[in-house]
Amino acid sequence: MRPPFLLDTCAALWFMDATLRKATVDALTDACNQGTGTFISPITAFEVGQLARKRRFKSHLTPLQWFERLIGMPGMVLADLPPAVFIASSELPDCQAKDPSDRIIAATAREYGFTVVTRDRALLDYGKQGYLSVLEC
């Protein structure tokens, strides 16, 4: 069985817009059918709020409504985000990601054994280095 997935913020946005690649949707559906949750980081709520503040959030829902709808979907689970993950995000070996949110997502995935669903080049490269399990969406 494949490890549980963790959507990065862009993947979560594309999931909600139904614009993920079919192979990614199939993998998420299989995970849900097998009882393996797909995890969402609380940092995604922060990032969606930031997008809305910059007027780059494209939804008729408020950021909170959007986030609550996302985590309320079948198979979606809110990931734990304890202080240890924040500290680990600052200590990632050989990580070139400069965005703190990406580092938090990477640290969360490493802590819990998640596969990150992303198109973010820094996270994909980190996966290629063997530090992170990734699925390109």
From TrEMBL:
It holds the Pfam family PIN. One of its GO terms (molecular function) is hydrolase activity. Residues 6-127 form the PIN domain. CDD domains: PIN_Sll0205-like. The keyword Hydrolase applies. Its EC number is 3.1.-.-. It is an enzyme of class 3 (hydrolase). Keywords: Hydrolase. This is Ribonuclease VapC22. The lineage of its organism: Bacteria, Pseudomonadati, Pseudomonadota, Alphaproteobacteria, Caulobacterales.
